[in-house]
Every structure is written in structure tokens, then in C-alpha cells.
Amino acid sequence: MPQQDIVKIAIQMPGAYPQLIQLDQKKPLSAVIKEVCDGWNLPGPDNYALQYADGVQTYITESNRLDIKNGCILRLTKAPGRCAEDLYKGIQSSDSGVRCDSLKQLACVSTDVTFAQEFISRDGHSLLVKIVEDADEAPLIMTHTLTGFMELMDHGIVSWENLSAVFIKKIANFVNAKVLDASIQQVSLAILESMVLSSSSLFQQVKQEVTLERLLSHLQVTNQQIQTKAMALLMALLQTAGDADRQELFAFLGMKNLRQYIYKNIIHSSASVGDEMAHYLYVLQSVTLNHLEPRMRMPLDSYNQDQREILHGLRQAAFETESENSLSHERRRSLCAKEFKNHSHSDLLRAPPGLLALDTMAYFASRYPDAYSRFVLENSSREDKHECPFARSSIQLTLILCEILRIGEPPSETGSNYHPIFFSQDRLLEELFCVCIQLINKTWKEMRATQEDFDKVMQVVREQITRTLSSKPTSLELFKNKVNALNYSEILKLRQTERLHQEETLAPPVLELKERLKPELLELIRQQRLNRLCQGTLFRKISSRRRQDKLWYCRLSPNHKVLHFGDVEEDTETPPIESLQEKIPVADIKALLTGKDCPHMKENKGKQTKEGLDLAFSITYDVEEYSLNFIASSRTDFCLWTDGLSVLLGRDMSSECMRSELDILLSMEIKLRLLDLENVPIPDCAPPVPKPPSNFNFCYDLSQAEQ
Predict the structure, then answer these.
(1) Inter-helix orientation angle 390-404/428-446, to 10°
(2) SS3 for 254?
(3) Distance between CA atoms of 10 and 54, rounded to whole angstroms?
(4) Which of 89, 262, 289, 514 is most buried, judging by how many CB atoms fall within 10 Å of its CB?
(5) How far is CA 666 from CA 403, 494, 640, in A?
(6) Residue 85 DSSP SS3
(7) In terms of Cα–Cα distance, which of 253, 265, 356 is closest to 307?
């Protein structure tokens, strides 16, 4: 006989020594129970059953007996049918003590579906309904009655819709009562929640019977169980309601300042919020924020008069205020076209964030006009590549906030990640936007970003917002202080700390593999840098008048021995190396200088911008009497060239780009090395690139929509 068919267990019975038996899973359960009864000389084995002695004391049946494991302790007890019959009679006893004990036991054993089927088959649930409808029992008996009824109904054997209007009204009266036993109200709230979630018809009955003012008052009590059950019923009403009923409920709850109500009586006054309450707070947050979904899914309509007026109002607020008299009419028109026409119409076609982005911009401009005007005008006065675009930033920020707040996603059945700040603000999305759009401008300046860095800036801003919200700030002011303190340098420090911690948690073999891979990957980066220098780069000469007037090109010879450079025309892309007349042998290069140490930075000391210093580098040659001076067009070019020149000079690369690329390559290589590729065929060559489609009619031309 296979080993899994035999299970060694212990069976207990009050007043008797336990029996240790080998349970044959192929033998009928009735035969097993008979053998156990014979061991204790008990007559009538049909009156007995087995159930678990520990934990959830479930009856053992033919359908669940295979769950019994070696070492389980079972108990011989009354059969569920006999237990149901005894309790059914006890509940109808004229002795209140017997009734109370029977109902108390019923509330415990009703959690078992086998017992519940037996009790309901005797119409026992109708007996409980009658007790509630008569409502003449003591509070303790009524509590046991309601608890037992709730447990029986949870099995889904009887439909909630079979309940009478009288019963529903009685339960609602228990909830509406100002003075009543807390245990009765707690169970009554749970029963009403189950009713609401079961059908739309019961939703309407409960909505008519329950006084919402009284339901809100339950949130004020100190009993956390009452608070939790009241919140659960509120969430059930909101989730089950149709659009019209939901709008009506939101209107009522809004008038009562529900969120501030919860903030004051639950979040602010409690040391901690229980898991169940946290789930309901999360659901309320999700359901409320999802009211913004229609605007988020709706793209800009260029022919919609209301939307055109909002855009016009944004232009007017930024560029046509009386406080900016120094701007000429033509200058205002130019700035206006630059900021809005080039961005808003095309980007607002994205849905999400759709019209929600337009709403947040309009809210910022109307609520904080000075901050709005300062943002737009400050960036409009910068060079094009250094401008932080308000419209584009606003649209991307709105999308980020929608994703962080999970707008448009249905609430999860197990979710509990709510934001306390939600309950202290009437318009959370808009207020967060107003704080974070100014954060973008601040971070943009800290990163000395250009248009090419837009996505990097937004990634940092997303991280700033996410990290700050994860600390659960309870007010907008606290969020604002924390998110502004989390500047770009702090983000870099946190990333570095987390990276080091991650490395520390790696297993020693993985760390050893990482160290072995580094030289190979560094050599790969070195070769990439040298190849980039061989391709060459276009640089601009800056005159003493700080006017960009000439272009020159510099590239490394294929044998890596000579730097060729010379002046080129504006439309030159990659000039042949023979056309570059000037050259410097690599062997003559003495030093690589950067920043303020460069000769051309020293000559213009006091006139150079911080950005210019960060992009400047020079090489000295011929006993350091001569120098070739560069100003890179971007931080990426600066890193590529300084790394490449360091390689030529036999030095280590030290740029932030190199460190980032090394981390990426190491992470990717380690993941590839740790893949379980046993019996997985790996091709010797890359798969062929598929042919292009016959037409590109599926592409959407945004330029036409902008026109």
C-alpha cells in the first residue's frame, strides 16, 4: 500500500485517553469513526464525527479528509446533524439561560459549512430571523443571534434576497439607534454591508433605511471595531451604487466633509490604523480619485470653445499681466507661442492624462498666479535648450501623479496603501500638482538640465514624489517641506546607499562574479569611448563677446595616435579626417584639465556661467605651453570626451556616465550569467530583422493634429 494512503494521527475525547491510529485514507470515514467509537466502547457511531482539535475546528468529511497530515490531532465530537438538532431545540427553550448558551455555541460552530448545511436544512436560519424581528431578547442573546446568523449567511447557502423587509428594517434600526449595545451595532453594520454587496435591490432598501448622518456619527466613537464596520458599510454603498446614486452619496458625504471627518476622528486621533480600516480608507481614496478618470481619458478637442478659453486664460495669465509692463506686445506674443503652441495642443492629445492636465494647469494658474507667472517667465527668458517647458512638464507631471495615485485603476480587494494626506485635502491631485510643478523647476536647475535631459528630470521628480509619499505625510505643508528637502543631491546619495546595501546583501559568489566581470566591462566602455572620439564631435567657439560665431570639429585618428581638428561650416555633419588641417600627436598631450582649471575659463574668470564651467575641458601639449580648449554641447559629450582622453593618457575613467553604464552592464551581465539555461538552445547568430511593413498607415501624425 502506498505510503501516502496511511496517515498517523491522534484522536482525543474529553475524559478518555487519546487513541493513536493509522488512518487509512481509502477506508470510508464512517468505518474509521466506528473503529474509534469501538476503542472507547461508545454506542451509536452515527452520532459522532471527527473534527480538528486545534486552530479552526472544522469537521472532517469525505471531501476534505485528504487535507489531514501526519501528526494531526483530531477530536471525536457530536455529528453535525445531531449538534444542529440539539441547538435548534435549545434556541427555542423557555429558559433564557439555555437559549443564550445555545445561541453562543451556534455562533461558534456556524463557521463550519458542514454544520451550517445541517442547521439550515432544519430551517434554523428562519428561527434566527424571527428572533431579530420580534426584538424582545436581552442584548447578549441578540448579539449571539446576529453573530450566528451572519456566520450562516456567509456560506452562501441561503440568498440574502430572501430576507424580509421587516428584518432589514430591524437591522437598520439597530444601526440608527443612538443608545444600543456596541456588539449589536457592530454585527448589524456587518450584516448590512453583506446585504448591500449582494444585490442592487438590497442596496436600495438599505440606502432608504440607514440614516447616513448616524452612519457618519459611528466614525466618531472610540470603539475601533464600530468605526471599521461603519467605514466598511460606507464603502459598500459607494462601490455598489449606480452612477446617479453614487453622485448623490458623494454630494452628501462631501457636504459633511467626510475626508476631514475621517482625518480628525480616525487618522489623527489613532496611534495606528488597523489592517481592515486601512483597506477601507484605501478603497475610499481609490473610489474618490477615480471620479477624475473621465477627464483623464478625454483628449484635447481643438474645436471645443471651453477648452480654447482655458488655454487662452493660461496664456493671458502668464504673459499679459499688468505687472509685466517691461515686456513689449510682440515679445509677449512670441513667448506665448513658444510656450503653449509648441507643446499644449500636441501633448494634450495624449490620454491619459488628457484634459486632466489642462485642469491642473488652470488650477495652478488661478490659485497661485504669482508662482505660475514666475515659472513661465523665468524659463521663457532662458536659452531654448535650457528652458524647463511648463506645458510639457505639466502634462508629464499630471500623468506621473495619476500613476502614483492609481487614478483609473479599480481598488484591489487586498489593497491597504492609502495616503493620509488625501484625507486632509479636498483637491489632492491639484494641490500636489501645484507643489510638484514648482519642484520640477527647482530640480531642473539643480540638475542643470537641458531639453535632452527632460526624461531624466522627470524620473528624479517621480522618485522625489514617491519617496515622500511613502513616508505618509499627514498634511500638504508637511509633504511640501519633505519633498523640497529631498533635492537632487539627496536622491543621488540615497541611490548610492541603496546600491551599496544591495551589494552587501549579495551572496559571496555573486560578489566574486561581479569583481571578475568588471575589468572586461571597463574595457568595453574604454573601447566605446575611443570609437566615439574616432567618430568626432562638433564644437562651438565662444568669442570674447560671448557670441557663438564659429564651429570646429575634432576627431581621433583610427590608430589612436593623432587628434585632428579644424574649422568647419555650419551644415557640416562628419568631415573627412583629411580636411582637418590641425593635429596634435597623442604622445605630446601632457594633461587633461576640466572646469575652472581650463585656460579659457581662467581668461574669462567672473564671466562664465556655472553650466559653462561644468562643460569645459582642455588638453595641454608641448611642455604645457599650448592648449586645445573645448566646451561640450551637453554633459553626455563632456563625459564621453573626458573619459576617452583619460584612456589615451592611461588614466582611469571617472565620469558619472561611466559609473552609470558600468552599473547597468554589470547588472545585466550578472542576470544573464545566473539564468538557468540548461537544455535551452542558444542560437549562434542573432535572428534576422523582419522586413518593414508594406505601409505605415497605422502611424499617427501628431503634426497634423497640432495644425
Answers:
(1) 120
(2) helix
(3) 12
(4) 262
(5) 30, 20, 19
(6) helix
(7) 356
Residue 265 has which C-alpha cell? 476622528
pLDDT at 98: 95
Sign of CA dihedral 215, 216, 218, 219: positive
| pLDDT of 707 | 41
Q: Which of 216, 201, 212, 144 is nearest to 172 (CA)?
A: 212
Integer-rounded Cα radius of gyration of the chain: 37
Q: How far apart are CA 477 and CA 121, in angstroms?
A: 60
Instruction: State the residue for C-alpha cell 446568523.
Output: 149
Q: How far apart are CA 562 and CA 577, in angstroms?
A: 11
The beta strands (E) that lie in 269-319 are given as none
Distance CA(44)–CA(38), nearest Å, equals: 10
The values of phi and psi at residue 380, to 5°, are -70, -20
How far apart (Å, rounded) are the C-alpha atoms in residues 9 and 614? 76
Q: Cα separation of 129 and 111, whole Å?
A: 18
Helices 165-176 and 124-134 sit at what angle, rounded to 10 degrees? Answer: 50
Query: Hey, what's the cell of 9?
Result: 494521527
How large a percentage of the chain has pLDDT more than 70? 91
Q: How far is residue 447's CA from residue 330's CA, in Å, rounded to a whole number?
A: 32
- Specify which residues 22 forms β-bridges with: 8
Residue type at 351 in one-letter notation: A
Largest distance between two CA atoms of the chain: 115
With b for 16 or more beta-carbon neighbours within 10 A and e for fewer, the 258-270 pattern comes to bbebbbebbbeee
Looking at residue 626, its amino acid is Y
The DSSP bridge partners found for residue 73 are 10
Q: Are 318 and 364 in contact (CB under 8 A)?
A: no
Tens of pLDDT, residues 106-141: 999 999 999 999 999 999 999 999 999 998 889 999
> How far apart (Å, rounded) are the C-alpha atoms in residues 391 and 379?
11
pLDDT at 316: 81
H helices of 5-112, where?
Answer: 29-39, 80-91, 96-109
User: 250 in helix, strand or coil?
Assistant: helix
In the block, cell 469513526 appears at 33
Could you give the residue ranges of the DSSP H alpha helices within 344-487? 344-347, 355-367, 369-380, 390-404, 428-446, 454-470, 476-485
Contact 349, 705 (CB under 8 A): yes
pLDDT digit string, tens, across residues 672-696: 888 877 777 878 888 888 888 888 7
Contact 376, 319 (CB under 8 A): yes
Closest by Cα among 279, 192, 171, 277 to 237:
192
Contacts of residue 556, defined as CB under 8 A and 6 or more positions apart, other chains included, come to: 530, 533, 534, 536, 562, 563, 564, 586, 644, 648
Nearest Cα residue to 402 out of 430, 439, 378: 430
Give yes or no for a contact between 229 and 186, defined as CB atoms under 8 angstroms apart.
yes
Whole-angstrom Cα distance, residue 465 to residue 443?
12
Q: What is the dihedral of CA 571, 572, 574, 576, to 10 degrees?
A: 160
d(CA 595, CA 635): 12
Q: Is the separation of the CB atoms in 275 and 323 below 8 Å? A: no
Cα 72 from chain centre: 42
What SS3 class is residue 537?
strand
Q: Quote the Cα angle for 30-32-33, to 5°.
A: 65
Look up residue 699 and give its three cell numbers.
502611424
